Each structure stands twice: as C-alpha cells, then as structure tokens.
Automatic annotation (TrEMBL):
Protein name, per record: U-box domain-containing protein
Domain G-protein coupled receptors family 1 profile: 29-245
Membrane-spanning ranges: 16-37, 49-76, 96-115, 135-156, 176-198, 224-244, 256-276, 408-435
Any Pfam family the entry gives: U-box
C-alpha cells in the first residue's frame, strides 16, 4: 500500500470514528440543553432561551444527517451520493441549511442578550418572544430558499461523482458564501454583540434591577458568551480551509495531493461538526445576589424553595402567602405546605454571614464578622505615614469598558488576519508539494 493510500485510509477512519463520537456526545448534550431550557421556569418564556432551544433542535438534526452521510458508505461499501441523484442533492442541501440556521441562532442569541441588558429602556423593549419567533421563521425561509440552487446544479458526473456543474455558483461560494456569509459576518456579529452584552451585564449593579432578573441576565449572558467562544474557535479553521480548497483545485486522479487534501478536510470537517455538539451549561454559581431574599433584601437564614422555582425566606414568604396567596415574582398561586427547605443555599448563606455584617430581624440583633488578631511585638509597630490628601479624578467605568472592548475586537481581528494567511500558505505548500499535472475541481 502506497503512502497516498495509507493517508486516504487514515482520513476515512478518522472521519468515521470521530463522527460517531461527536454524534453520540453531541446528541446527548443537545437533549440535555433542550430538557433544561424547556423544563426550567426561568427559561420557559425567555427569548434568548428560545434561540438556544431552536439551536439545540437544529444541531441534533445536523448531527443526524452528518452521521448518516458518513455511515452509509461504511455499510454499503460505496457512496450512495455518486449513484442516486436524490441523495446526491439531499446530502448537500440539508447540511447547508442546518449549518446556516445554527449560525443564525447563535447570532440572534448574542443580539438578544445585548438588547435585554441594554441600559436604555427603548432597546430592551425591542427584545420579545414575538420577535424571536419572527426572526426564526424568517431565517428558516431564507436559508431554505438559499439551498435551492444546490438542488438544481448538483449533478452526478461519472468520472468525478456528485459535484456542482455551474461555474457561477462555484464563484458565489468562493467569493461570498464561505468568506463572508459563513465566515467573517457571523464571527464578527456574534463577537461584537456578546462583548457588548458582557459589558452591559457588568453595569447591572448600578441600575435598579430586580435580583431575580439580574441573576437571569447574568446566567444567560454567560451561556451565550461561552457558546460564541466555541463558535468562533471551531468555525474559523473550517472557513479558512474552504476558501483555500475553492481556489486551489485538486484532482481525484492525482492521489498524492488528493490524499493530503482529504486528510485536511477530515480534520476541518470534524472541527466544524464539533460546533454542533457543544453543550451550553447552566452552571449554578451562587453570587451575593443569589443569597439575598427578594422580599426582605437580607441574607437567607431559613431559605425555602417555592413552587414557582424561586427561593425565599420562610417567614417572609409565609406571611406573603397568607396575605396575598400568590408568588411575589410570577403572580402564580402558592401554598405554604409546598415550601421545601434548600440546604445548599442555607449553607452558603451561613458561610456568607460569618464574613460580613448581617441583621437578624427575628431577634433584632446585628452579627459582626469575627476579628482576626495578629500577635505582634510592640517594638515592631512602625508609625503610619501621613500623606497629604490629593484629589484624584474619577474615571467613568464605561469609558474603560469601551476601550477594553475595542482592544479585544482589534486583537481578534489581528489574530484572524495573521493566522488566516499562515494557514493558507501552509495548506498551499502541502498541495504544491504533491501537485502534479492539471487539476480539476471537486466539491466533496
């Protein structure tokens, strides 16, 4: 077996095994996302959670299609796409539509978090569940229409297999689809709005925002920000490779460069497929706001979880239920016998009270943190230097945040600008090393 044949076998096995692993883990992760976001009362009516739910559904469909595409040649011993015209068209239409839908949901989620955390009330009013549904329906229609040329111009050529037969469509994918529509535009859009949302969340403490709403915005922004990081890291290499492969043509008859190209494609395709298996975790990192009762605005002493999913102080929520009979946050009916103690928050609140000043309304007492005495000889005490008072101008934090955001965007753009040509030159040198004779273009 020659070196080219060994590389082809390695690329085929790598694609098959890695696809199986991604399909299993990704499907489990997406189902967990779907279950958490649909069953939790905090996310059930939230528009950002709606985008993440649609993305989980689309990613599950995408992983299923990719798994079928890779497993069929292994079962039958040949590629059905090179024989059956219907499968030739479907295996190229469906992954593209699902890929663009998943990309759109990431961008929509980042944009929605920017609107929800915006300090201007007019901007926050734009974000709604109706807008989320309209944008999702519009994206489904647009990307379905966008995939129609695939159904028209993908044909089976006996010598080359299932390829695009229209030169103008190849130019469209070479100069617009992969560089801009599937590359630079979603990367910059998701990065920009996620950074702006992160900046807005840092200033939520200054605004008069409810503790529960502040906690929800913080969790959703962290989830979206983490999703955008994985999205950018996994999409950038594949976009660079596709731009390279559409401009450096490799023939299937030249086994050397074709084997190297297939191995590189297998690695890059595995990275982009990994993008559909990332699990957006809803980590319960309790902050100071999570340990404060929304009714008394004091640190918990006897926390209980009500039927609406929120935690309250037992005495406060009992009096509230006896007086009004509904939840103070969701206005749904509550019952005292449905209150359940939350030991985890009780433990965290007790530890927090030991390190800060707290007030006990039941006993009308104030608890102080313990003093830490450090033994020190009297002869080692040095006089405290007295410095003249100086007026230091206060710099607004907003300006610092804007400068930091500009620096991050400039750094990201610089990395993409530097890494892109380097990867392209490396791939080009690998192709030129094995290049022999005239080459023909094949889209796999």
């Amino acid at each position: 077996m020659s070196t080219a044949d060994e590389i082809l076998v390695l690329a085929e096995k790598f694609s098959l095994y890695f696809t199986i692993v991604i399909f299993v883990t990704g499907t489990i992760g997406n189902l967990l996302n779907f279950g958490v976001l649909t069953t939790s009362k905090r996310f059930r009516s939230n528009q950002c959670a709606f985008y993440l739910i649609i993305e989980s559904i689309v990613d599950t469909c995408q992983l299923s299609i990719i798994f079928i595409i890779y497993i069929l040649p292994f079962i039958y011993g040949f590629s059905p796409g090179n024989i059956f015209i219907v499968w030739c068209k479907l295996k190229n239409i469906l992954p593209q539509v699902f890929r663009l839908l998943s990309t759109s949901m990431v961008c929509f989620a980042a944009f929605d978090q920017f609107l929800c955390t915006n300090p201007q009330c007019s901007m926050r009013r734009i974000s709604s569940i109706q807008l989320a549904r309209r944008l999702t329906l519009t994206a489904i229609c647009i990307w379905t229409i966008h995939g129609i040329p695939y159904a028209i111009f993908y044909q089976i050529i006996p010598s080359n297999g299932c390829i695009i037969t229209n030169t103008n469509l190849i130019h469209y994918y070479s100069y617009f689809y992969y560089p801009i529509l599937h590359g630079l535009f979603p990367i910059l859009t998701s990065c920009l709005f996620s950074l702006l949302a992160y900046r807005n969340v840092r200033h939520l403490v200054r605004r008069q925002v409810a503790v529960v709403r502040r906690r929800l915005d913080r969790q959703l922004t962290a989830m979206v920000f983490l999703r955008v990081i994985f999205f950018v890291l996994l999409l950038t290499p594949y976009t660079i490779y596709r731009i390279y492969s559409l401009n450096v043509l490799v023939s299937i008859t030249d086994l050397g460069p074709y084997a190297v190209d297939q191995l590189i494609y297998s690695i890059m395709a595995s990275l982009i497929n990994l993008n559909y298996s990332t699990e957006t975790k809803d980590e319960q990192n309790f902050s100071d706001d999570d340990l404060i009762c929304p009714i008394t605005q004091e640190i918990f002493r006897d926390p209980v979880r009500a039927a609406d999913g929120f935690v309250y102080e037992r005495d406060a929520i009992s009096r509230w239920i006896l007086q009004k009979g509904t939840s103070p946050l969701t206005r749904k009916p509550l019952r005292i016998d449905e209150l359940r103690p939350d030991e985890k928050i009780r433990h965290l609140a007790r530890r927090r009270r030991r390190s800060t000043v707290s007030y006990d309304a039941r006993n009308d007492t104030v608890s102080l943190p313990p003093l830490r005495l450090v033994p020190r000889a009297t002869n080692q005490i040095s006089p405290i230097p007295v410095r003249p008072c100086q007026t230091v101008p206060r710099v607004p934090r907003v300006e610092c945040s804007k400068k930091r955001m500009v620096k991050l965007l400039f750094l990201l753009f610089s990395i993409c600008t530097i890494v892109g040509p380097i990867v392209g030159m490396v791939l080009g040198m690998l192709s030129l090393y094995y290049y022999r004779g005239k080459v023909q273009f094949i889209i796999t």
